[in-house]
Amino acid sequence: MEDISKTFGSMVFNDAVMREKLPKDVYKKLKQTIKNGKPLDPSIANIVANAMKEWALEKGATHYTHWFQPMNGITAEKHNSFLSITSDGNVTMEFSGKELICGESDASSFPSGGLRATFEARGYTAWDPTSYAFIKDNTLCIPTAFCSYGGEALDKKTPLLRSMEALNKQVLRVLKLFGVTDVKRVYSTVGAEQEYFLIDKQLHDKRKDLMIAGRTLIGANPPKGQELDDHYYGAIKPRIAAFMKDLNEELWRLGIYSKTEHNEVAPAQHELAPIYTTVNIAADHNQLTMETLKKVAARHGLVCLLHEKPFAGVNGSGKHNNWSMCTDNGMNLFEPGNSPHENAQFLIFLCAVIKAVDDYQDLLRISVASAGNDHRLGSNEAPPAIISIFLGDELTEILYDIEQGIAYNGNGKAKTELKIGVDVLPAFPKDTTDRNRTSPFAFTGNKFEFRMLGSSQSISDPNCVLNTIVAEVLKQFADELENATDFTAAINKIIKRTIKEHKRIIFNGNNYSEEWVNEAKRRGLLELKTTVDALPYLINPKNIKLFTEHKVLSEAELFSRYEVLMENYCKIIHIEGLTLVDMIKKDIIPAINTYLKDLCDLVASKKAVSAKINCDAETDIINKLSNLTNSIYQKVTELEEKLIEAKNCGNVTQCGRYYHDNILSLMQDIRALTDEAEVNTASKYWPIPTYSDLLFKV
Ligand code: ADP
Ligand code: MG
Fold this sequence. Notes:
Layout lengths: L3 H4 L7 H7 L2 H13 L5 H17 L4 E6 L7 E6 L1 E3 L5 E3 L3 H5 E5 L15 E6 L6 E3 L2 E10 L8 H21 L8 E15 H4 L3 H6 L24 H16 L4 E6 L5 E6 L2 E2 H21 L2 E4 L12 E10 L12 H20 L1 H6 L4 H4 L14 E2 L2 H12 L1 E3 L4 E5 L23 E3 L4 E7 L5 H23 L4 H16 L11 H10 L7 H4 L6 H9 L5 H55 L6 H30 L6 H28 L11 H6 L2
Parallel strand pairs: 1-8, 15-18
Antiparallel strand pairs: 1-2, 3-4, 5-6, 6-8, 7-8, 9-11, 9-12, 9-13, 9-14, 10-11, 14-19, 16-17, 18-19
């Protein structure tokens, strides 16, 4: 094992490197920029760029790139060489301040939802100095935001940065009211736990569905699955252990401290948790982590599947987004305090989240909506597509008591009129919270864990939503409190009102149960089952108002995002549909036919020996498989036609609906028939690796 103290962050142009490589005054200015989230002073850009280049060359880098996250959710980079030819024909290594701050990218192929007509292909990338530059594959990567010529956001980073500003502004207003004036900046902090599958590369490459769609489109369940729960926290196999060691070292060099890995519930499934950090950096780190997972897996003859549901009937993969708010002097605003004063402040922030989550259930749901995650949300291992908050019994009881005006003293209640700011919160042990793993949004002692995220998605969207909706509610609270004559009374009023009006969003029971779905309906909570059900809410007037008022997304940007998301949904299902047709026609049906032919030959040979020889079993299988192939063939023909018809299905909204209602359901039917055929076909004829092969042969 490498010495982590020496290698940690060795490929990152971090604070220590900056201090060492930059003149003192430049370092100070840059730090100021980073701390206040302001644009970089152009007068120092050249010096910073030069220091960065020198450092990168020392580390063996030859190229640089502006590294960004377009709206399709993966990262993009355009490499440029440092190499430059001078007028007298000599070669130098150049990297100017201009090249550091701003890049021009011919980005016409990135989705823009109509924001940037392709003839105006230029997009601009701008350095986000709050996220450190790093070296990956001999390339200096500069984390950037990506905008159009007119300044519209074309990526996931820009709105996230804007949402951080919005949240900072409103939290500072509230803190000021509580007399906290030594805080200059507030950040949301995030730790994103990442789930993934590892399977053998040779087996993977034999399946077109895994290669093209990242998930199995057919495949009968293995006789042994996760029923025994023996994989969870089970011993890690040597091949996986070697992978993890390699992965850790790679991530550490990039300054990503991954903490725990254990086997997840499903066979071949694993999890990685980093130590939390400021949200925009956490988002960059999570993108890098996903990239590194894939890269390192390939070195070990493995493939890392990040799809939300690679195997039907086996647990899918998600991402747990642990979110909190932290001040620049290290105060976690969701840490219940010891003093009454701190408690009132804690309750205000807690109430802001409760109200925000209730008011904007739709946006939280949308922020995790994708074709892949639809297979996971609502099935038995993931929270259902209904948003609710878990607070734990103790905190819930405290809130209910506050609503009733009863003071809570931890052991028995004094029926006194409650004054918040006196002794509302007893010191409650953190461990009584969490441990409800079924809630989509759980308070876990000093942070919230949003568990609906899909494993492959960027964490930028959900955190952008979280920051913005909490900023909005804090704005409402601050408006009210700034105008109040009696601060304590106003605080009381807000807390009581919030609990009364929004307690419907609190649920501590089993979110996976049927009763909860009914109960949620009774409470009037939204259940947006699929991406096509959820996405249209993005552009309703309430949400446009929210995003524009906080300057996170303009109306045009929101509409473009809606289009990109819906188009993406359709494209994914279209590709899956084509892949399924291809597999069935070229691999599956021919394989079954070969088996059928051998069976028929066998029957003929038997009959040649004697007409009396029993051929019932063979005949039965021949019959069954012939019927199945016939049905499969009919459905596949229908699917082919529907995929062609899809061209004429109308606008994006209608297209999304079409793909969901027509294509997905047909694919489901074909899958059921094919899986039955698989079970009835002799192993040696089945042309692709089975679930058992994939899940147990690592
Ligand atoms: P688990 O959810 O498995 O019980 P932990 O509670 O230890 O694990 O932490 C889960 C994740 O939450 C880790 O990535 C951790 O860094 C992150 N986390 C802890 N504190 C905070 C915080 N204040 N803000 C954001 N994330 C946090
Ligand atoms: Mg967790």
